[in-house]
Design brief:
The chain contains three helices and two strands; from the N terminus they run αβαβα. It is of the alpha+beta class. Strands 1-2 form a two-stranded parallel sheet. α2 links the parallel β1 and β2. The radius of gyration is 15 Å and the shape is elongated.
């Protein structure tokens, strides 16, 4: 999604685009998973001017309604 968004920015000459945040949520998330999702996604480097970006901006472990509510509070206030 990030690569597509950057491609469209370049194609439409959008110089200062509105940022979009990307999130991951799972019932089972360990530290290697978190690290992989926060590692630079090579497909996000679409032009020489693109800054490398992680695959997602935040990772959530969701196992209860309370976890879902906390996740939405963080996502909606970002």
């Amino acid at each position: 999604m990030k690569a597509l968004y950057i491609h469209l920015q370049t194609r439409q000459w959008i110089v200062k685009p509105r940022g979009i945040s990307y999130y991951a949520a799972s019932t089972s998330m360990n530290e290697p998973d978190r690290k992989a999702l926060r590692t630079v996604a090579t497909h996000s480097i679409t032009t020489v001017h693109s800054l490398p970006q992680a695959a997602v901006d935040e990772v959530f472990t969701v196992n209860s309604i309370s976890d879902v509510e906390n996740m939405f509070q963080q996502v909606c206030h970002t």
